[in-house]
From TrEMBL:
This protein's name: Cupin type-1 domain-containing protein
Keyword Disulfide bond annotated: yes
Protein family per UniProt: Belongs to the 11S seed storage protein (globulins) family.
Source species taxonomy: Eukaryota, Viridiplantae, Streptophyta, Embryophyta, Tracheophyta
The entry's keywords: Disulfide bond, Seed storage protein, Storage protein
Length: 244
């Protein structure tokens, strides 16, 4: 979560539903096949950044979302007879359940609707708050790093991705570096701005640009990246294609 507070419902394959209170800085590991819902019950905006591996998606390069309800939900494609037998309810109930949810993706709930309340214990093993976690790197007048891996969130081993949150102080530099296990990086700029350079294995610079909050860039395998932030500082969140 980049901003705001909310609630998420998560059903992992062959597991009971977990209802999680989410707040700024939370990283949530979601494996393939997870069913989720996300709810903002506050007046302020809730912003959640979704990053993941889409190479095995139904359409490579795109997230594959299966909506259970709504105009493009999977149950709208089945006849009421099939759904009524699957859910063990009468056909009029099926029509009400399937047909009444006309929203697509994001819907505004009626004020009378109450969703499940989060449980503190449901955060265990699913959520790691990068804003509150112990620092893995802390350089005075330089910056701070929190690394997300199998040690603090074991579920990332199943997903095959790790992550880090980096915050640089004004004018600080993240020196040239690369992943020695051939991982690639997807980096989202959370706040601030700065300059970035990426160099390929043949020593040729392939990217030189200024980045700012809301922008995203990719560092291919074995490519070397370095960043220098502007006087106001810069922070970014990266996912890396290795859980370690």
């Amino acid at each position: 979560s980049i901003a705001g507070n909310g609630v998420a419902g998560v059903v992992l394959p062959e597991k009971d539903e977990k209802v999680i209170g989410i707040r700024k800085g939370d990283a949530i590991a979601l494996p393939f096949g997870a069913v989720t819902w996300w709810y903002n019950k506050e007046d302020t905006e809730l912003i959640v950044l979704f990053l993941g591996d889409t190479s095995k998606g139904h359409k490579a390069g795109s997230f594959t979302d299966f909506y259970l309800t709504g105009t493009n939900g999977i149950f709208t494609g089945f006849s009421t007879e099939f759904v009524s037998r699957a859910w063990d309810v009468d056909e009029s109930t099926v029509k009400a359940l399937v047909g009444s949810q006309s929203g697509k993706g994001i819907v505004k709930l009626d004020g009378s609707i109450k969703l499940p309340e989060p449980k503190k214990e449901d955060r265990d093993r699913l959520v790691y708050n990068c804003e509150e976690a112990p620092l893995d790197v802390d350089i005075k007048n330089g910056g701070r790093v929190v690394v997300l891996n199998t040690k603090n969130l074991p579920l990332v081993a199943e997903i095959g991705l790790g992550a880090d949150l980096v915050k640089l102080d004004g004018g600080a530099m993240c020196s040239p570096g690369f992943s020695c296990d051939s991982a690639l990086q997807v980096t989202y700029i959370v706040s601030g701005s700065g300059r970035v350079q990426v160099v390929g294995v043949d020593g040729k610079r392939v990217l030189e640009t200024t980045v700012k909050a809301g922008q995203l860039f990719i560092v291919p395998r074995f490519f070397v990246v370095s960043k220098i932030c502007d006087p106001d500082g810069m922070s970014w969140f990266s996912i890396i294609t290795t859980p370690e």
